[in-house]
Amino acid sequence: MTDPIADFLTRIRNGCMAGKEEVFAPFSKMKAEISRILQEEGYIWGYEVDTSEAHPRLKVKLKYQGRVPVLKNIQRVSKPGLRKYVSVDEIPRVLGGLGITILSTSSGLMTGFKARKAKVGGELLAQVY
Asked: d(Cα 37, Cα 102) in Å, to the nearest integer?
């Protein structure tokens, strides 16, 4: 697998479209941090690390309003073939502030809003709305 982050985001997107309660993905610290941000922003109910198997995996509990998923779209921006780095002034606003951007900064993973507040730029990982 060349891009495990894109695979993780695709699993979440496909799980939402299929109406699943939870999705599983191989565990990594980066995926756990992305899940933490999604939980803080209210896009998922929660996540936990499942160590009952030989390899640890991440269990993400998806969130719905009625039958409609809260997470409408989640897409990878910076890819292994074409990395996308932004400075503080270039951090995009998704849907005029209704969505979030997830950045990998020198201070760790954070949303675009927090990165602007901390005055740090970084690699633009994903956009969520």
From this structure: 8
Residues 24 and 100: their CA atoms lie apart, in Å, by 23
pLDDT of 21 higher than 90: yes
pTM: 0.94
CB 44 within 8 A of CB 16: no
CB atoms within 10 A of CB 65: 7
E strands, the chain, where?
22-26, 44-50, 57-62, 64-65, 68-69, 74-76, 85-86, 100-105, 108-111, 122-128
Q: What are the two backbone dihedrals, phi and then psi, of residue 83, each rounded to the nearest 5 degrees?
A: -75, 145
Task: Give residue-wise pLDDT tens across range 69-119.
Answer: 999 999 999 999 999 999 999 999 999 989 999 999 999 999 999 999 999
Other C-beta atoms within 10 Å of 10: how many? 16
